[in-house]
Amino acid sequence: MGWIGEAVDSVKSLRIRQVLSQAVSLGMIVTSALIIWKGLMCVTGSESPVVVVLSGSMEPGFRRGDILFLHMSKDPIRAGEIVVFNVDVHESQDTEDVDVLTKGDNNMGDDRPLYAHGQLWLQRHHIMGRAVGFLPYVGWVTIIMTEKPIIKYLLIGALGLLVITSKE
Amino acid sequence: MHSFGYRANALLTFALTILALICAMASFSDNLNSPSPSAHVQVLNINWFQKSSQGNDEVSLTLNVSANLQSLFTWNTKQVFVFLAAEYETPINSLNQVSLWDGIIPAKEYAQFGIHTTNKYHFDDQASLSSRNAGSNLRGREYNLTLHWHVMPKTGKMFADKLVMSGFRFPEEYR
């Protein structure tokens, strides 16, 4: 009877080993993605180093689905630069900051309707970075996934299944 | 080992790697281009020069802008965004920029141009919000007309540069 118990034990240890190694490889994928993102944040100085263009307001320069790489430096914002801003609902303080007004190339008027209610100018702390690089089409992946969540769940499910069932 | 999924994965990874590499090389090749753009701006007339109802100095110019930006275009250039700004120094701000005219050049054929225009956007000396002084700094003020351009690539790094044309001065009196 001893050899049956031995076999069961060896199968059990094999399963545990496999599960552990799969968990580790899954963890490696997630953490390396996180490391790359946080590393980019450190290098570029922007809290969101890569953004996806969601509207056609900057056509024909940037279309929906294009990707912009941002960089944030201490240099003052000058006329003509392409900046990405994040509007918060905080009261604006009267600082010595330079006030910034933005406008989309493809829009008739300026961006004031997009700002917080009653806000006329952007301040330095609203600016997340200025665009320094450009990659077309890649952003469509995230646009499709946010607009059709079912595709996102299908993709995550398929990847998860692949990780669980993979033999290596 | 050599299942369909494995091969599809390898093919996709390889294709994406090659595509990324080609994009990087296309962007890098822009550095090998050393452009020699030229520009010339004339102020033909000062249509009016007055104090606006808010108390800011306000001016309307008729301009003749001619430029040749053809050398900015490479095989990786999608378009060039160009704008003309008046730049001057006041006691409070070391740099004031007012955009007077802008345009988008979609292809190399259109990169040599000469236009005759009044300023497309309002040129007024905007009062600073923090110091609350009226913008009445333009009389007798010396200013530059600077042609700025931003080169938008098909993929990769964006470039920006400018040409400064100095030696312009506003009249001493409103007219």
TrEMBL record, chain A:
Q: Which SUPFAM superfamilies match?
A: LexA/Signal peptidase
Which subcellular locations apply to this protein?
Answer: Endoplasmic reticulum membrane
| Keyword annotations | Hydrolase, Membrane, Protease, Transmembrane, Transmembrane helix
- Name the InterPro entries on file: LexA/Signal_pep-like_sf (IPR036286), Peptidase_S24_S26A/B/C (IPR015927), Peptidase_S26 (IPR019533), Peptidase_S26B (IPR001733)
The EC code for this enzyme is: 3.4.21.89
The organism named in the record is: Rhododendron simsii (Sims's rhododendron)
A single GO molecular function term of this UniProt record: serine-type endopeptidase activity
- Give the record's membrane topology: Single-pass type II membrane protein
What is the predominant subcellular site recorded for this chain? endoplasmic reticulum
Q: Name one GO cellular component term.
A: signal peptidase complex
Q: Domain Peptidase S24/S26A/S26B/S26C, which positions?
A: 37-89
Q: What does this protein do?
A: Catalytic component of the signal peptidase complex (SPC) which catalyzes the cleavage of N-terminal signal sequences from nascent proteins as they are translocated into the lumen of the endoplasmic reticulum. Specifically cleaves N-terminal signal peptides that contain a hydrophobic alpha-helix (h-region) shorter than 18-20 amino acids.
Protein name listed in UniProt: Signal peptidase complex catalytic subunit SEC11
Q: Which reaction does it catalyse?
A: Cleavage of hydrophobic, N-terminal signal or leader sequences from secreted and periplasmic proteins
Matching Pfam families: Peptidase_S24
Choose any GO biological process term that the UniProt entry carries and state it: signal peptide processing
Q: What domain of life is recorded for the organism?
A: Eukaryota
Q: What family does the Swiss-Prot or TrEMBL record give for this protein? A: Belongs to the peptidase S26B family.
From TrEMBL, chain B:
Q: Enumerate the InterPro entries for this protein.
A: SPC3
Q: Does the keyword Signal apply?
A: yes
Specify the protein's topology with respect to the membrane: Single-pass type II membrane protein
Q: Which purpose does this protein serve, as stated in its record?
A: Essential component of the signal peptidase complex (SPC) which catalyzes the cleavage of N-terminal signal sequences from nascent proteins as they are translocated into the lumen of the endoplasmic reticulum. Essential for the SPC catalytic activity, possibly by stabilizing and positioning the active center of the complex close to the lumenal surface.
Signal peptide residues are 1-26
What family is it from? Belongs to the SPCS3 family.
Subcellular location, record wording: Endoplasmic reticulum membrane
What's the protein here called?
Signal peptidase complex subunit 3
Q: Does the keyword Lipoprotein apply?
A: no
State one Pfam family annotation.
SPC22
Q: Which GO biological process categories is it annotated with? A: protein targeting to ER; signal peptide processing
One cellular component (GO) term of this entry: signal peptidase complex
* Origin: domain of life: Eukaryota
Keyword vocabulary terms for this entry: Endoplasmic reticulum, Membrane, Signal, Signal-anchor, Transmembrane, Transmembrane helix
